[in-house]
Structures
1.
Amino acid sequence: MATFEIPDYNVPKLEEKIAKLNKKAAQLGVDPITIHVSGFKNVLLRDLYPDAIDQNNHSLYENSSECIRFAIVQVDGQAPKINGWQFLATIQPQFEEDGTTFVGNVLRTVPGMEGIPEKYRQATNWCDHCETNRVRNETYLVMSDAGETKQVGRTCLRDFLGHANPEKIAAWTTTLSDLCDLIGSYGHRGPMGGPYIQRYPLADFLTQCAAVIRVSGWVSRKFARISGKDATAAVAMEQLVATANARLEQYIPIEEDEKLGKQTADWMEALELRSDNNDYLKNLSMVGQTGCVEYRTTGIAASGISAMKREFGESLIPERVKPAAANYLGSLKQRMILDVTVNAVRSYSNDWGSGVVVKMVTGTGDVCTAFGLNGVVEGQSIKIKGTVKAHNEYKGQKETVLNRVVLL
């Protein structure tokens, strides 16, 4: 399995291309190529293009918060196997301009088949089946179930493998070998995949919104249309995309704005854990999970600051403890006493009742959850006694579910 990072707007085009290749795989009777998006990351343009300059020879993105959202894509293409022999790579000889001076070989390796012996970098067009060395455009490297490798020419594949049509299977091997180049064409410098979408880190945008609200108050887009005032989201975005010397001094963020912006971004991301979200909070949650904003989501994102203040009051919400890599606590049905810090308190309501769910973290970073533990607040350090009910995993993080929990 190979892992790649490509802009998220190119993923649908890549999936479409892989689907077409898999139709060919079905015709050949070989395993299809699988593609899985395992996560996302936001990368600033100034990190992608550190040397980019404008017509005045100034750095193009030095003061920009613009970013591209990358999808982490895992691609797996199983090398075909015929009668106990598996294709590893296509060997393509390279020559100097005169066309006769041999330079070396390009090894088009099937994804997941790394570690091809270096000797094949300089191997001649020798075929282990017919035992001849002659002009060939490419040869194929195959490996037996016992680990023995052979270099075989295209015209010898039928006799060597005992297959009616090995040439097409070999061609599929070359297709798999070219996967890295194919996926690379969908990278941020590639021409395919549709329009470029301008995005900015959510915390940076909310920090700028906090500065605008501190100076001019909150103005929604709806109120802006009625009153003729500038919407908070519009002003914040203008500040964010402006060059350093074009930004209005009164809207330059201070430490208080940075803290509020970061906490609002964290709160919006954590909304995913709640079961009582209305449509508005669900929309906020979706923006929070992406970790970035684009022009069409700036309005809903900017309103997050006011929404968080309505829930917690004008004071800033407590800093949340960032859990380390968590392990499970105890064994099932074990009664335990724990010193923990409250990480989140969320109310819920469903067909089976209502109450609160409390997420806590130990001093070693282990996460536990309890239902019905009342009278605690986020950031509070407490001692509890509870019974291990279950060992769950949420978004790749281990957490222990406790019941019959009491404060000590």
Note: Residues 189-195, 318-324 have pLDDT under 50 and may be disordered.
2.
Amino acid sequence: MGPASGHGGDAPIAGSLRKRSVTIAGHRTSISLEPEFWAALEAAAAARGWSVARLIVEIDRTRGQPSGGGSLSSALRVFLLAEARQKQEG
């Protein structure tokens, strides 16, 4: 299935965050995001014809670049904000 497999379902956690597990490069990790961010991530993946897991892997790769950094959850939110701004401008 590639370097990442799909999420293991969502489980509610404190506040309005939803926690999902993904496998990135053979390592299982949990990501906590608000439901609205999960929906935006699913839409962004679908627009590319990708799985959410594949999009997460691609976003994760940017964290090693100078403008990247921080947690994976933060990187996902920043990516989605940039996408929204791009759509608004273009």
Note: The longest strand covers residues 18-24.
3.
Amino acid sequence: MRILIVAGGTGGHLYPAVALVDYLKSKDHSVMWIGGERELERKIIEKKKVKFHKITARPFPRSISPYRWIEFLLFSGFSLIQSFRYIRSFKPDVVVGMGSYHSFPVVIAAFIFGIPSVICEQNILPSLTNRMLLPFASRITLSFPHTRDYLPQRKRKKAVVTGNPVRENITATSKKIAIEKLGLDGKKFTLLFSGGSQGAHYLNKVAVETLKLLESGNDEKNIQFIVITGEKDFSWVCKKLKLKKIKGKIFSFLSEINYAYAAADLVISRSGATTLAEITACGLPCILIPYPFATNQHQLSNALFLEKEGGAKVIPESKLNAHILKKTIEEIIHNPLLMEKMRRASKRWGKLEATKNLADLILQVGKG
């Protein structure tokens, strides 16, 4: 089958699509990718030996600025023409929109050509793009069953809960191998700090301060850390995080994030949907600091859901400081029953079959 996948922007849309591509190619399906203008996207996809095309799509304006709307309409027209051309040349059986704004012109073009489409919603709260595309799509897949409640009543029959795809290697790495690969100590408790695919300066700052406080406490001999900073903060964190008692590893970006997850005992991170899908697939307890400027506060909704289910502790960024984070980390480390309860709750929401579930639905829609 010929399948056209549309994804771009942040890792939250990119990596589920990469997991889907790997699965579809393993089943000998033909895949083409349409994405945005970031160089990272092209490099990742071309490594998969998948044809990559970019479009000049722009996000929906969030203001009444005439300039923003003129720009949006112009680039939407350009990207729709580009989508027509790519669809005409590839002749897909089905189009898959992974939720970013790049999906909009391509799914609309597919609708005009009479080609079925599947759109994917990773977060609890549906994105503006997916709400706009729902009348034109054949199906919408959900990561959380609760998302159905936020869809129009008449469109809920289009919704299927598949889970959010994660890359196969995320759950395939043993702790022993990960510890050896990263040069860590297998006898120590490992904290993983990650700000998501783009990094997060405030989280990096609090991580540095928290680790310094932990070094002066009673657990300094029993813990170690992994900090994934993002490109901008890497040098700064390396300079600031020169500890004598607590050892660890600092990365600007870790393409093989599976090693970090496998080595970790507790994750401190943002709460994007793909991050949560990976954390729960690994059954890891976590402390979540939602990005406060995420559209419609969707990261907060994701985080509160997992906290309610028992798999996470949530600290709003407005209340976050090193002393509060240190206290929360110590509460979890020193309470084995709480740790086990969080692990089980996290694992319960990990959708290990999400990639297969999504692929099966796509093939079903493509066959008509």
Note: The domain at 2-164+352-367 is CATH 3.40.50.2000 (Rossmann fold).
4.
Amino acid sequence: MKVTLANDKISVEKPSRKPWWHAKLLPVIGWVLWLTFAFFAANVVMAIILVALRYAHLTDLRLGTVAMTFVDAGLYVMMFAIAIWLPLRQRKKARKLAVTDTEAIKLPRTKFILNLLGLSRWPNWRDVGYFASNVPLFYLTDIVAMFAATLIFGLSTMSQQQNLGFAMSGQSAWHLVAIFIALVIIPPLVEEALMRGFLFGKLREKIPFWPAALVVSLLFAVAHWQINVSLMTFILSMFNCRIREKTGSIWGGVFMHMTVNLLSFGVLFLGWFGGANVGV
């Protein structure tokens, strides 16, 4: 509010207020589109690199298990780098203009990035507690949801196996180690940091928990394409958003994600539970 004195009269100028859709909706759409762009841009860059290597006779496009692990890691690194570029640029501009009205802007670069990704601290027993208490609830919810979806979409649709890019049998011990890293270690860390850390954190600056969690979870589900996999990842994301909200960190969600992927790895590659055809 601005108060001025002119011609012996006091005038009060009220600050202009941006409409809700400008102050809240546009930033939400913007961050969702930015992360989507990071995903597609990383895939395009990786495709160009692979084609260039192919024409240089340095590799075959039919990559082996270990090579696929490095390709997946490279994709995640590029997506991560593109995604955090924009907030780092905003931070640099704010510091240049001396706009340091938030604590995050004042943080050093490394701490700013870790805070942005929900990794501002090491895991603690609270994270472990939320993880342990939510695992059975997640699987119970997933079983009920899968049963209901099977009644709607049919058994053949809901029992489809996800194409992970690796042969399900005939893998050597070293190849299994590479697959384990590619499925159980890298995706939970990077996907939780980008989805429940970066994107969820940015959306929560503008909108309440439930709309933010739904947007993040829907985007995460769509990225997995198959109906059965998308349903499970949507439920997982909702649980992990809640854990992020309650603990202020993504560690509990990382543990949840690793557990789900570990079970998938055991079933699909180690023959756990008779090698059941699960949609994960």
Note: The first strand starts at residue 2 and ends at 6.
